[in-house]
Amino acid sequence: MVDPGPASEEPGRRQPGRAGRLQKKLAETLAEEEARRPGRPVALFCTDEHRIGLKPVGRRVWGPRGQRPIALGHHRYEWLYVTAFVAPVTGESHWYVGNGVSKPLFEGLLAAFAREAGAGPQRAVILLLDGAGWHTEAGLRIPEGLRLVYLPPYTPELQPAERLWRLVDEPIVNRHFDTLAEIQDRVEQRCRRLEAQPDTLRANTLFHWWPQKPKPN
Questions:
Q1: Can you tell me the mean pLDDT for 176-202?
Q2: SS3 13
Q3: Cα 208 from Cα 9, distance rounded (Å)
Q4: Residue 202 to residue 207: CA distance in whole angstroms
Q5: Considering just the CA atoms, what is the radius of gyration of the chain in Å?
Q6: Are 126 and 150 in contact (CB under 8 A)?
Q7: Looking at residue 57, what is its pLDDT?
Q8: Quick one: pLDDT band at residue 178, thresholds 50, 70, 90?
């Protein structure tokens, strides 16, 4: 397992202004949801998409001194999209693999996530995400119990879910695959394994500034 390093070393530490403002916004939203229906659990998740495909994923590797390591590759432009929803405080996660991004697909993902995460009358879920077009289009259907909070523009370093992708890529780096079906099978297996490792996900996504409980009302 590749460990990209402790989440406390994330670039957000070097940008206390933006990270601090986002922390305050998330904490206030958590407190609002707590006050709206006292006693109902409130969970804070984040989500992001990752594009992978038949274009090889390359990484540096160790090799004998004086010899250049060789990795087979064939650049082809067929893609899959991995969407992850993760709660950094607990490591709870939900994973989906699709063949594109669009408003209708995202609405379907939100519905599936809300259902599987138990969002609704018994549990509120706050979801941090970026401002991609399909995340923000007018009329986007948002399931009951789910509340969206958007990252400031151009701040991917503040998105905890961004740190999942090195973990997802681990079984496919420096590898050649003949078909998209092969890589999809490998990635789906990887996502299932990661879903069963909440401690690993927590260690990689829980930024030092991430709210861990609502502020007192």
A1: 93
A2: helix
A3: 8
A4: 9
A5: 19
A6: no
A7: 62
A8: confident
Q: Which two tokens stand for residue 163?
A: 């740190």
Instruction: Output the pLDDT for position 55.
Output: 63
Residue, of 13 and 28, whose pLDDT is higher: 28
- Strands 93-98 and 79-86, by their bridges, are antiparallel
User: Could you tell me the two tokens for 108?
Assistant: 């379907």
CA atoms in the 13 A half-sphere facing the CB of 191? 20
**Residues 69, 61: contact at Cβ < 8 Å?**
yes
For the chain, the average pLDDT equals 86
HSE (side-chain half, CA atoms, 13 Å) at 27: 15
Are the C-beta atoms of 44 and 87 separated by less than 8 Å?
yes
Tens-place pLDDT, residues 75-90: 666 789 999 999 999 9
Q: Give the 3-state secondary structure of residue 10.
A: coil
Tokens (6 digits) for 196:
């069963």
- Quick one: which of 155, 167, 152, 154 has its CA closest to 198? 167
Contact status, residue 68 vs residue 60, Cβ threshold 8 Å: no
pLDDT of residue 61: 64
